[in-house]
Structure formats: structure tokens, C-alpha cells
Design brief:
Layout (H helix, E strand, L loop, with lengths): L3 H25 L8 H11 L1 H13 L2 H11 L6 H24 L12 H12 L5 H12 L5 H15 L16 H22 L2 H16 L10 H18 L9
Length: 258
């Protein structure tokens, strides 16, 4: 199982870059449309690579005891209610902080927020399309690296890896992302990594991190979303978010593993 996390990263990046890279090229050439069946297969397969490769690595490189520990963490729902509240409400709180910053800087965006009911409509699909990434990011990457890194630098490392993993998405035409928005996207990813790193460090529960990631996507879908643009309000919010993440993580101790 030694260096299993490096194998996880290599396999994950390969699958995503092959699928999303091919989609970007073929879409640009007009061979495959993003919303066509082949386009969606490539998009979903590439986006599912952290989940797929987590199971591949566990079955190929983990011993029996570590496999059992991994699968126990997948069904670890028995956690204090406060952590469920944190997982579901913190992404909403971050979105509200951004809206407040935008309002105070003269760029109000409250009209873009839909009904709170929309959160739950988006939340459950977001578990499948986004949330399950945490099976790999937390169940393997954070779990394997937490004995070598303190929580704060670990969260930053995972956030940067997560940003690099998403890079091909900014090259796919018609997806809505632009290269100019990549820096705000990566910085926002570090903030979210801080929140989810904290949650996993406190609970070792993969389901809670899946719910938190899904809540991030659901909150964004209902309008509580920082736009990936180089704007004053965006960077003020990013500074606030990074400071909040640091406050959560700095008191945590580095995990020790046998």
C-alpha cells in the first residue's frame, strides 16, 4: 500500500485528462457536441475518475485490513448532528458571505438567488455528480497524506491538486468556463478544500465530505456562487474564505498513523 496515493493521482489524472482532453479537442473540431451521448459519456467518465480510481487503487494495492477500514469509512454515518449541519450549511454560509461582499462593493447579486427549495432539488443529483469525488480526495488522498502534513498545508495541497485536475474543463468549448477565470476557480477550490479537510479531520467520515461537496454544488446551482471572474468582490471574498479556513484548520493537530 506504500505510495498508493501517488498511484491514485496518476490514474485519476490520466483518465480525466484523456476523457476531457479528447472531449475538448473533438468538441472544438465539431466532431462531438458536449450534450451528445458520446460527449456526455466522456464528460461524466472524466469527472468520475476520483471515485473510480479510488476503488481501483484500494482493490489493487490495499491489504485486507486497510480495505476493511476504507469500506467502514464509506458507511460512517454515525456522527454528531453538528457535523451534518456544518456539511450542509457551511457552503450556504460561504455563498451568503460572497453575496454580502458583492453588495458592499456595489455589485449586488441577490436577485440571482433562487428559492431555498431549489437547494434540495439540486442537492441529491449533486451527490452523484460531484460529491462522490470525495471518495478519492478524502478516502485516499487526505487519509494517506494526513500523517505527513499538518491540516492547513494539506488542505492547500489538495486544493491545488483539485484545481489542476479540473484544468481540462476550462478548455472544453461551450462548458461555460473561461481560461481567465481559472485563478479564482483554483483559489475557491482551496477554500472548499479547507472546509472539507476540516470535516474529514474531525470525523473520518467519507459520507459527510460527500454531502458537503454536494452542498457546495447545490448552493452554486441555486445562485450562491462566486463567479470565476477577476473582480474586486471576488478577491475580497477569497481572502475572507482563506482566513476562515485557516481559523478552522490551524488548531487541528497532525494525524498520526501506524
Amino acid at each position: 500500500m506504500k505510495h498508493s496515493w501517488t498511484k491514485f493521482l496518476i490514474f485519476t489524472f490520466l483518465l480525466t485528462y484523456i476523457c476531457h482532453g479528447a472531449l475538448a479537442i473533438l468538441n472544438y473540431l465539431g466532431v462531438i457536441a458536449l450534450l451528445s451521448v458520446p460527449g456526455q459519456v466522456l464528460y461524466i467518465l472524466g469527472g468520475s475518475s476520483p471515485t473510480i480510481m479510488a476503488f481501483v487503487v484500494v482493490h489493487a494495492f490495499y491489504n485486507a485490513d486497510d480495505k476493511k477500514a476504507f469500506y467502514r469509512s464509506l458507511v460512517d454515518f454515525k456522527q454528531p448532528f453538528v457535523y451534518y449541519a456544518f456539511a450542509l450549511l457551511m457552503p450556504i454560509a460561504l455563498g451568503m458571505i460572497f453575496l454580502l461582499v458583492s453588495f458592499l462593493t456595489g455589485k449586488p447579486a441577490f436577485s440571482q438567488v433562487s428559492s431555498p427549495l431549489q437547494f434540495f432539488i439540486f442537492f441529491f443529483p449533486a451527490i452523484i455528480f460531484g460529491g462522490l469525488e470525495e471518495v478519492g480526495w478524502r478516502g485516499i488522498l487526505q487519509e494517506r497524506l494526513s500523517n505527513k502534513n499538518k491540516p492547513l498545508p494539506l488542505a492547500i495541497i489538495i486544493g491545488l491538486i483539485w484545481g489542476a485536475w479540473h484544468l481540462p474543463m476550462f478548455l472544453i468549448p461551450n462548458l461555460g468556463n473561461t481560461p481567465a477565470g481559472y485563478l479564482p476557480f483554483v483559489l475557491q477550490g482551496i477554500i472548499l478544500s479547507m472546509i472539507i479537510t476540516y470535516l474529514y479531520a474531525k470525523t473520518a467520515s467519507i459520507p459527510l465530505t460527500v454531502f458537503c461537496h454536494a452542498a457546495v454544488n447545490a448552493a452554486g446551482s441555486m445562485g450562491l456562487l462566486m463567479p470565476f471572474e477577476n473582480r474586486q468582490d471576488v478577491f475580497i471574498y477569497i481572502l475572507i474564505g482563506l482566513a476562515l479556513g485557516a481559523v478552522l484548520l490551524i488548531p487541528l493537530k497532525q494525524k498520526t498513523m501506524d
